Amino acid sequence: MQAVDAVNEKTITDFVQAAVEKGSTVRTDGLSVYPLLKWYGYVHDRNPVKKRKAHLVLPHVHRFISNLRAFVQGTHHGLSEIHLQQYLDEFCYRFNRRHRRTEMFDRLLLACLEQEETPFSALTG
Fold first, then answer.
1. In this predicted model, what pLDDT tens digit does every residue of 60-104 receive, in sequence order?
2. Shortest CA distance to 35 belongs to which of 61, 16, 57?
3. pLDDT tens for each residue of 28-52
4. CA distances (Å), 68 to each of 19, 47, 76, 88, 102, in order?
5. Residue 122 within any structural domain of the chain
6. Residues 60 and 110 in one domain
7. Which residues on adjacent β-strands are paired with residue 46?
8. Shared-domain flag, residues 60 and 10
9. For residues 88 and 68, what is the distance between their CA atoms, to the nearest angstrom?
10. Are residues 9 and 58 in the same domain?
11. Rounded CA separation 70/56 (Å)
C-alpha cells in the first residue's frame, strides 16, 4: 500500500511498476486510470463494479479495506497525515502475517533491532 496525493495514470503506473512483477495479472475495478497497464507488460483483469455490489466483485479488496478501517478506528482512533505511510506499512505488516500470530512478536522484535533509530524530531515534525 502506498499513500498518494492523487489517483491518476502516472501514480498508478509508477506504483504498479515498482511493486508488481511484469507479466503478473492486475485485477481492478473499472476506474479509467488502469487500462494502460497492459502496455507496460501486465495482464489486466478489468472488472467494473457498475450496479453490482463491490464486495462481490472484488471480495479480497473489500475485506482488506474493511480491516484497514477497523485498524484505524480501533487501534489508532484516526490518522495523522504526516505519518500516513507508516500507518499503512504497519497495517500491511500485520495483515500479511495475520495467520502466523505465534511468529509475529519475534519477527517484530527482529525488525526493530535491525532498524536504524528514529530521532524524536522525525516523529513529531
1. 888 888 889 888 888 777 777 888 888 899 899 888 888 887 887
2. 16
3. 887 888 878 889 999 998 888 777 7
4. 20, 22, 11, 8, 21
5. no
6. yes
7. 28
8. no
9. 8
10. no
11. 20
Closest CA to 1 of 116, 94, 80: 94
Q: What are phi and psi of 6, to 5 degrees?
A: -145, 145
| Alpha-carbon distance values, 5 to 57, 68, 75 (Å) | 26, 19, 24
**DSSP class per residue in 101-115:** HHHHHHHHHHHHHHS
Name which of 40, 4, 35 is nearest 20 in CA terms. Answer: 40
Q: Which three cell numbers stand for residue 80?
A: 495523522
Structural domain range at position 109: 53-116
Q: C-alpha cell of 79?
A: 490518522
Same domain, 67 and 25: no
Domain count, the chain: 2
Is the pTM here over 0.90, yes or no?
Answer: no
